[in-house]
């Protein structure tokens, strides 16, 4: 069973990804680390604890970064119009928001050191916790089995600016550090996730067939669905759950490899640029960077089917 740490900012689609991880028989979720993003970190931490409690999962939650390491970032924009004021679609939550200690980066270092070669990291928010863990102890990169992240837009336009996907844009320097470390990274970007669309009828069927756990996901997703209806979809994109499926079923994805840089200032801040492995030319800013992977294609229907099977099985 794979040992997985889930780095997350719940967030509605984060909730579906978390439920998938908990339900999958091949995943041993050993820890959750939280970061700012869809809401402030105290809220995302409360949300992770609430979801785990509701699903009866005894998994420790470690709060992390409250803001980016990228200097001179614009003020943080929390997308309440997408994820609700409480981050979970304004679904009632009977758990208060409290102050949290910033411990996720050190937790990552300690856990990776305790399980060399075994830890898989799924990161579906800002990459700040991972970057700060590397700053504490760069040697952990050689001890991680792999890092799968939801983030980036390599050939498609971004979803927060024309250049940038939200997770990368929120802390572009952190993302550049993560892509440049000597651990294997697979990015699951908008190029694929914008084609993994769970329509309303499918969501209703999952809620009907999946029992109380999946009904909670469907209930807290209703505001998310209304947002997507406003932009022409009758359902919701499942960005983070798509990345979760890569952990268990990489055969459903098509990857390309190359060095990746992330721009951290200017009009294209947050742009993910890949230098393909077969490109011949000056090294320049790519010098010494490892080749990483991005899933620019895949089988969206098979990915959705896998989510449905695990979450209702």
UniProtKB/TrEMBL annotation:
One Pfam family from the record: IU_nuc_hydro
The Inosine/uridine-preferring nucleoside hydrolase domain, residue ranges: 4-295
Keyword field contains Lyase: no
Keyword set, alphabetical order: Glycosidase, Hydrolase
MF annotations from Gene Ontology: purine nucleosidase activity
GO annotation terms (biological process): purine nucleoside catabolic process
Origin superkingdom: Bacteria
GO CC annotation terms, alphabetical: cytosol
Protein name from the UniProt record: Nucleoside hydrolase
Phylogenetic placement of the source organism: Bacteria, Pseudomonadati, Pseudomonadota, Alphaproteobacteria, Rhodobacterales
